[in-house]
Amino acid sequence: KKKKKRREQKSFPSQIASLPSPNPRHHPTVGLGASTCAMPGYYDISDILMEDEAVSVAFHVGANGVGLLDPGTETNSVEKGAKIDLPFWLAHELCRRRAVSITIPSCFGQKMKKDVQADAACVDLGTRYPYFYEFGCKLFPLVGDKSIGPFLRHTFANRYKEMLSKSHTASLNAIPKFVLRLSKEEHQLFEAARSSMVEFKKWRVRDLGLMKTTIVGHKRKTDLH
Amino acid sequence: MAGQTDHSISIFSAAEVEFIAEDEMIEIVPNIRMNALNLLCGDFGPFLPQIPCTVPLWLAVALKKRGKCSIRTPDWMSVEKLTQVLEAERESPREFQPLPFHYVEISRLLLDHAHDDIPEVYMVRSLIEDIRNVRFHKVESGLETISGRTHAVKLKNLSAMEVNLVRPFMARVLQAFYKHDSPEMVQQADTSASKRPQVVDRGPRRDLRPR
């Protein structure tokens, strides 16, 4: 136990919110990935909101005075082995102290995997799990399941292909339906592409006025392949 | 605008790229007599009527607006050359034809302000539009091949405005792919590396932090 404590002391970084490097020996393949995730920063709003997602945890130790967390308890404490839903930021800290163990939430479970395999682009991440990717990145080192990483990447790669063509041609007013299905991160990508495209079009027809029709009229399909 | 608060991607607005493009030199034929202009960016010789001289584009457009010169079309903007370029673009689905870096902006400025100086203006306009569309489709199809192992995407002969168009999107996409890919791809065998000439893969990633 003393050894574990010393390791934890070492792994306490100066910033509180940096990603965990809890124990490189336990997760040898995960260490680098976790620490080189894009650093969201302590003050980043979307990061704070993302950490508010609930995860189901199982307590390893009993905890006194926090009966608030468990709605079903009579005494003001949580028992060992209890299964509770905690917000991610709390679960994350407790997990580092080895007080709880996190169970994989449903968004990375079997059903989701089947959905993604069927058709990644149609999976509705926007309404159900807007923080899908960030959450997965943060969850990855804490949970023993190593398949989350490749699964995230696979999902993203498939959805990206769909998104590519549509985002550039989307106009300012008409919001295609698939935009509602994008997670926050994908939405940022989409916005970046669309706004730059729209701005370019505005610049092109800036002074033309009536001459616009000669440009817009030439809508021939270009046959490349 | 350049230097926005979101420092992760810096965006140039289209007007800014146009401003930079206006530094290109172009030939004009003045129809007035004027003394030499000694400007910070250079000296532009005494202007004599019907003697062609080279000036920056912004100066040419300003003189043209006041009716003091007529602009001579650059060589690459003739109908034959543009048709050649268009055919070549259509034929090679992966490469871009060499075109002047600011061709979009220059052509737009000239077509707006000097359309009486350009022979067959409508043909030139539609050709440039087609070229632009074809190139943009190629950019899109090149972007599709980005996988996790892409460190950089190489797009040769792309013009300034086209680069500006895809810059924020591509920067973010590469960042996102990098974020998702770092530990996993190092383990897996490299069977899915893309072989298209546009995507340059400089080898496996190296751990930057000592463990």
Automatic annotation (TrEMBL), chain A:
Keyword Transmembrane included in the entry's annotation: no
A GO BP entry: mitotic DNA replication initiation
A GO cellular component entry from the record: GINS complex
The UniProt record lists the keyword Nucleus: yes
Domain GINS subunit: 110-203
Record domain DNA replication complex GINS protein PSF3 N-terminal: where: 43-95
Biased composition (Polar residues): 11-20
Pfam families, sorted: PSF3_N (PF22466), Sld5 (PF05916)
UniProt superkingdom: Eukaryota
Protein name per Swiss-Prot or TrEMBL: DNA replication complex GINS protein PSF3
Native species: Rhynchospora pubera
Subcellular location: Nucleus
Source organism phylogeny: Eukaryota, Viridiplantae, Streptophyta, Embryophyta, Tracheophyta
From TrEMBL, chain B:
Comp. bias (Basic and acidic residues): 198-211
Subunit structure: Component of the GINS complex.
Domain GINS subunit: 76-176
Swiss-Prot/TrEMBL keywords: DNA replication, Nucleus
UniProt cross-references to InterPro entries, sorted A to Z: GINS_A, GINS_bundle-like_dom_sf, GINS_Psf2, PSF2_N
CDD domains for this protein: GINS_A_psf2, GINS_B_Psf2
Residues covered by region (Disordered): 185-211
Protein name: DNA replication complex GINS protein PSF2
One Pfam assignment: PSF2_N
Organismal lineage: Eukaryota, Viridiplantae, Streptophyta, Embryophyta, Tracheophyta
Domain of life: Eukaryota
Subcellular location: Nucleus
Ranges of residues in domain DNA replication complex GINS protein PSF2 N-terminal: 14-71
Main location: nucleus
CC per GO annotation: GINS complex
Family statement: Belongs to the GINS2/PSF2 family.
Example of a GO biological process term: double-strand break repair via break-induced replication
